[in-house]
Amino acid sequence: MKPRNTLILAAVAAAALAAGWQFGLRTTPVGQMEVAPGSLVFPGLAAKLQDARRIEVTHQGKTMVIAQENGKWGLADRGGFPVQADKLRELLTGLTELRITEPRTSDPAQYSRLGVEDAQPPTSNSNLLRVLDSNGKPIAELIVGHRRVRTQGNVPESIYVRRPGEAGSWLAEGRLPVDADPQLWFDRDIANIDHARIATIEVKRGDATLEFGRDGDKLTLKSPAEHPKLDEYRLEDIGRGLEALTLTDVKPAAQQSGEKIGTAVMTTTDGLKVTVTVFKADKDIWAQFAATGEDKAKAEAEALQARVAGWTYQVGSWKEKAFVPTLDDLKASEPAPAAATPQPGSPPADDAAKPAVQ
User: DUF4340 domain: from which residue to which, for each copy (predicted)?
Assistant: First the structure.
């Protein structure tokens, strides 16, 4: 072989090896491809998804389950709490539109580089996605690995995938947002009632009752009438208790095991009444909500009640003082004592404390 041809072949081999490391190891011979590039990973899946009743995502041996019950999709380990409909739709649509681009490694020793190894080991980086029908029969199963990073703009997303039980892995084109963390599936919004609408608040905690009302555009403590000076910012936090309120976790109301520490009844200027029951479990604060209303507030109350009924929500620990504060929680801070002003001719403070030298 001529030296020139040898150099050309060496350069081509080096370029191919570099491309394998950059874009994913390709060890599956092209002649063994069973799927043509551009083919759907799951042909005809859209029609089959009509029978889907359960979605499982396994990561590092832990499985998150989203199940359909009475036509609604919810998290199984949260008592069926509803998941984000848009997020679920994006996942299933992405599964139907996922297309094979090219084959990648079939060597199990190289799976971890693409994130398509078995999803059971605690060190695994992959996600096993399974969609099942009402009989528990798989409609679609796929090990989902790393996303392929693309620096160009307006380029479709790509991801490495492998079918369970098959040696070959693939680079597939499409967006497939697989999340195994239930926290990423919550619709976190509970309520959003502007503080300016709050007319009165009645807080009961133990034997104490605090009643708040409007004084112009400010919320003030009406009862007890005799009380120490209060912090205006802390009073404002009480009025904002239902404003942009979100959850950090959730469980069915029947599973609430914390200690009840108080209730708050918040009434708006147009008649919406929201009752908040607050529980404390160790350091966590949980709350249950109930809404009623008449006339103009009736429709809003019914919508809110339908969303919150039957659930206990974990909220930020600071919400304890916003929903069920004590009088001490509302007290204004005492001003720091002023330092004594030294008189002319007096020794410095440090020297005054020293004993006189004989």
Answer: 73-252
